[in-house]
Design brief:
Layout (H helix, E strand, L loop, with lengths): L16 H34 L12 H35 L21 E6 L3 E3 L3 E2 L4 E6 L3 E2 L7 E3 L4 E11 L5 E8 L2 E2 L4 E4 L5 E11 L5 E7 L3 E12 L2
Antiparallel strand pairs: 1-4, 1-13, 2-13, 3-12, 5-6, 6-12, 7-11, 7-13, 8-9, 8-10, 8-12
Helix pairs in contact: 1-2
Length: 245
């Protein structure tokens, strides 16, 4: 996977304000990419211990091994959520600083089309049990823009404007139920729009879920939710939604 092309900074630094801001945003993107690799590695770690990693022969795990790996993955997920908060604050401060001072008012140009960015990012870092067949509470709104995507902090529902196309993603950490299953999926107006994400592991072990969907709404406002089909305890839930068209 390619990395951002960062310039060679010698002892003589000649960066404009705009270039410095672009570098900070690039560094945030690289850190987010690193976190995604960490979460993927945690998933493969669980697969290795449980003997479900493709093309890899794993030694027989003892109960002590399972408890140790569970604690390790849980701590990693907890620290990953903390890092996400730091990166979010860093991005918000960078974008705020990018505004700069107000310059001299220039001549009025030709009026063009109005384009409003519509986006939402919610994070819930609380430990919560969600019964099977019910929706996950989505926590606080970290960032939100426009009026085509609306969410009240703590609600399970994201309200979407009609006749639009959206992309939604979730990253969720939690524990497998007594059957060794943890799962989550997007629903639009109560109907599934993706196959969702499901992991099979030992009961009580921590695991990470990832889901993504591109979809369109109908002629009336729609409700997007994340459902737990299997009933699990979750320790972190992050949902991002952006309007594409």
């Amino acid at each position: 996977m390619s990395q951002s092309n960062l310039p060679n900074i010698t002892p003589t630094i000649t960066l404009t304000r705009e270039e410095a801001i672009s570098l900070i945003i690039s560094s945030i993107a690289i850190e987010e990419l690193g976190l995604s690799h960490i979460l993927n590695a945690e998933g493969e770690k669980l697969q290795y211990v449980l003997g479900t990693l493709p093309d890899v022969s794993s030694p027989l795990a003892t109960l002590s091994d399972l408890l140790n790996i569970n604690e390790s993955v849980r701590e990693t997920l907890r620290e990953t959520v903390k890092k996400e908060w730091v990166l979010t604050n860093k991005l918000e401060m960078t974008l705020e600083g990018a505004k700069g001072a107000t310059g001299v008012t220039g001549p009025t140009g030709v009026t063009g089309p109005t384009v409003t960015a519509n986006f939402l990012a919610t994070v819930n870092g609380a430990l919560v049990f969600v019964p099977a067949g019910t929706e996950l509470p989505l926590g606080n709104n970290v960032t939100q823009g426009g009026t085509a995507i609306m969410h009240a902090a703590g609600s399970t529902d994201i309200i979407l404007a009609p006749n639009q196309t959206y992309q939604a993603d979730f990253t969720i950490g939690g524990y497998a139920n007594v059957s060794g299953i943890i799962s989550a999926s997007f629903l639009l107006n109560g109907a599934g729009i993706t196959a969702g994400s499901t992991n099979y592991t030992a009961p009580g072990l921590a695991s990470a879920l990832f889901g993504s969907a591109i979809f369109s709404t109908g002629g009336t406002a729609s409700t997007l939710t994340v459902r737990s089909p299997t009933g699990n305890t979750f320790i972190s839930t992050r949902v991002n939604v952006v309007k594409l068209a």
